[in-house]
Amino acid sequence: MGRPRSWLGVVLGAFGVAAVGCADGNPAPAPLARHSSALIADQQHGGGPVGFFFLPPVVPVQPSAFSGAFESRLAPSVRIDRIDPATGTTLSSVTTLTPLTAEKVRRNLAREHYVVRWQTGRYPLSPRSSYRIRVLVGDRELGLADVRVVIRQSDLRGIDNAHFVGVRYGDILPIRFRIEQGAVDRDNDGVFDWVDNCVTVPNATGSSTPPQAPPVMRLPPRCNPDRSACDPQEVDCLSPVRPTQVDTDGDGTGDACECLNVTCAPAALCQGAAQCDDKTGICIQPPLLDQDGDRECDATDGCPTDVAKTTPGQCGCGVSDIDSDGDGTPDCHDACPTDRGKVETGVCGCGVEDAENDGDGVPDCVDACPRDVLKIAKGVCGCGVPDIDSDGDGAADCVDVCPTDPAKVHAGPCGILDGGVADAGVADADVADASVADASAADGDGPDGGETGGGMSHVDITWLSISNVYYELGPLNIMTDGYITRIPMSNFFGGRGGLAFTHTPNLPDVAAVRRVLDVLGGPLKVNLLLTGHSHFDHSFDTATWSALTGARIIGSKTTCFQAIAQQIASDHCRVVVGGERFTLAEGVTMRVVRWNHSGDATSNPEQHNPIELNAVPIPDPATGGLHGGVSEDFPNGGGGRGYLFTVQGSDGPFSWFFQNSASAGDLEAPIVIDGVDYGAPLQNLRAAMADAGLDSVDLWIGTGGAAVA
Hints:
- 7% of the residues lie in helices and 18% in strands.
- By secondary structure, the protein is mostly beta strands.
- The strands form 7 sheets. Strands 13-14-15-18-19-20 form a 6-stranded mixed β-sheet, with helices on one face.
- The longest helix has 12 residues, at 681-692.
- It is flat.
- The two termini are 86 Å apart.
- Mean pLDDT is 82; it is low at 1-38 and 411-447.
C-alpha cells in the first residue's frame, strides 16, 4: 500500500437539497434535483442548500465568505455509497462514518467545520466503480459529491479536477464541510426545521444561538490535520438536543403559528373582543358580558374581574383602596398599615418610632446605648463608659486594675506582677483571695507555714475525660478545664494540625454540662474553675460552668476574654501569667506555673506557639456561638498554666502538680510573647517548688509521658 497523501484532487457529482432533519412523522424534503453532469451540491455548487459548504480538499478552493453562523450542535454522519454513474442510483453502501465509528466525524469549533478522515485502504474499492460521498444529519441529506478511485499516483493526472475528487486507493481523504444555522433552522429558534412545529416563526424552548467560536490556536509542531486528529481544538461531536416545542392542541402546528392569518370578526357592543386562541387557532369571546357581576359591562369596567371596583384606583384592580390607620396612604402602599405615624418600616419596624435621642445617627431601637452618643453597643465597659485601653494591653481600662501598665491587668496578690515577678520590697506572705474561698486571714506563718489544712488529710481526685480533673478538698471543690461539649471534628480545617479554623460557630452543650454537674452534686459542688490552657477542648465550657455554679475562673487572659464573650462578668475571671500564689483555704496554697503547649513550631505551630487573644471575641450575630479554631477564638492563651498545690494536712503535708499539655522538646525553652520572657517550664516549676519548700511532689497529673515527668 502506498503512503497516504494529504492533498487529493476532487470532482463531485451531486444533488441539491431542500431541507434536512431526522424526526419521524415530518414531511420529507423536496427531492434532490438531478444533474446530467457530476457537480458538488452545496451553497456554491450545484444548487445545494444555503448554509452548507464543502471545504478543501473536497473542493479545490476555500470559499471566500460564508453566509451565517456555524451550527456546531449537530452530530452529522458521512455515508460512502457505490453508485450507478449514469443514474446516480445507489448500488451498495460502502460505509457510514459517524461520531461513534473508528473513523469519527469530529467538530472543530475554532475553525468552524466538521471533518472525517476516510481511510480508503480499509474498504474493497475498485477503480472501475463510481462512489458518492453523502453528508447527512439524521436521515436528512445535506450535500453530496462523487469520487474517482485510482491505483497509481500517476493516474491522478488523468482525472478532471474540475469535476471529480480523485483519490489513490490506500490514501486518507479528509472530508471537511461547514453547516450553518440557516441550513437547518430557518427561524433561528434553536429547533431544527425537520422537528420544528412552526418552521418560519420562532417557537423556541432552548438557546437559539450556537456557541461562539474560540480563538484559533496554532497547530502543534509536525501536526498534519489531513492525516490525523492532531489539532487540539478538534473534538468529538455530541448527540444533538431535541427540545420539545409548545403545541397545546397536538395538531402539529406550534402555538406560535396557530393564529397566523386568522382574523376575528368584531364583537358586538359591550361584548368582549373576539380573540384568536393561540393554543387552537379558533376565535373566541369572553364567556360573560359582566364577568364580575357588578352590573358594569366588561367593555367599560376598569376592573372587569373585581366585583368591588370599576376603576383601578390607587391600588389597582383586585386590591382594596382601604386606609386602615387613616393616615391618607392606602394599605397597598403603606408598609405600616396599622401605624398612623409611619408608611415605611424604617429601621425600627412598624409600631416603633425611629427616634434617635443621643445624636449618634443610630435609632434607639437598634442602639444598645440610646443615651450615649459615643456608643451603639455596650462593649466591655457598658453604656456611658468608653472602651478605652490606655496602655494597649488588650484590656479596657474599665476592667484593667492597672490601666496605665501594659504588663498588668491586675495588681496581683501582695503586689505580685502578672508577669510572675515579685514587686520589690513586698513580701509574698499569706495571700488570701476572698473571691476563691473563705480563706483565713494571714497570720505571718508563711504561705505554707504551721497552719494545718483545716483537718484535711487527703484530696479526692476524679478524672472526667481529656484533662478534666475534679478535686474535692474539704470545703474546696475545684474543676480544671471541664470540656464536656463535643464540637464535631468535621467542623475543623486548616493549619498543620487541621484545627486552625471552623466552618461554623458552635454553642456550649449546656444540657450536657448540667448533667455532669448534677452527678457531682449540683451547683454548690464547684466553687473554683481552673484552665490549663485556652484551646476549645479545655476552655470551651468554662463560662458555662461559671454561669451554672457562680464559681470564679482562674486562667489566661484569653480564657477571661472567652468568658466575657459568653456573658461572664469581667471581675469573675482572674488573669494569671505565672508566678502567682493563692491561699485557697486554711493550709491550702496554689502556685501558678507558666508552661509550654505540646508540639513544636514546625509540626503544629497554630497549636504550639504561645498566642493570646488581645480582645474579647465577637459572638456570631445569628447564633451567639464562637469559632472554636485554634487560629480563631480559641488560641492556647500564651502557652499553658500549670498549678502546684500544697496542703498542710492533719496527717502531714502533701502536694500535687497539674499541667494539661507538654512535650519533652521545650521543657527548657522560654515562653516569649511580644518580647516578654515568662521563663521556661522547668525553670518556673523549680521556682514554685523552691518557694513551697519542696524537692519533689507526691503526684504529678499531666501529659507527655516519662520524658516529661
